[in-house]
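#onboarding

Welcome to the new folks! Below is a worked example of what a typical request in this channel looks like: someone posts a single protein sequence, and someone else replies with the predicted structure as tokens. Don't worry about understanding the tokens yet, we'll cover that in week two.

Example request:
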Amino acid sequence: MATVPKHVEIADALRSAIADGTYPAGATIPRELDLATRYGVTRSTVRRAVATLRAEGLVTPVKRRGTVVRDRTIRRRVGSDRYQREVEQIGQPHRPAETSFTADRHVAWTDYQLDREFEEMPASDDVAEWLALEPGTPVLARRFVFRAAGVPEQLSTSYLPLSLVAGTAVADPANEPWPGGNIAQLATLGIIVTRVRESVHARMPTVDEARTLHIPDGVPVFAITRVMFTGTERDRPVEVAADIVIPADRTVLDYVIDLNPPQPGTDS
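Example response:
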């Protein structure tokens, strides 16, 4: 049998110790010199082992402390029913304010902050396709950083046809955050969202995304493209968000799919 490289053996041992709680979140793993002595290897071999754990998002270097075990507690469950919370905000000014983000994250409204930047621009080919517009049609781009108790948790860029929102309260960044989010906003314009489609894929973050969301090396993100539609007989797209970016190590995608089983006596 092939001999397991020493740095792999050390990485496996440290990984197991993190998993069983020997080194819990926030703990500092042993110093390079101590690990080198324990395993009878050079410090460069230990560095390779620790680099493996860093690439997996398990540990991170902290100045004046050493290498610290990251907190990988799931803080957010993204469920398929979360937009119903926004629907329930429509026409209910006395209902406790929330959005799909605060519902997912269980964040009180007072702990919810939204950095925002609005810009009118021509629709790119992708945005135009999502919104069923001609390329170059004016849209309102809204870039957001979502914060929970000051901690950045999510990024998104949302696009709306400018013809729908120009000169309205929806186009004023001073009105953000808005209880009920996009669904409640559009309802004030007489636009009732009847369907939401989301496409989810995983990828590594860009440099700006990693910096903004404090994502360490080795941790991917979920990138969600969301399109909101109005109408019953013929759906019309009225908003697209691409990408909604969420650190994957803090998030579970939690969906319920209802099925209609065949009735007794019918062909299946």
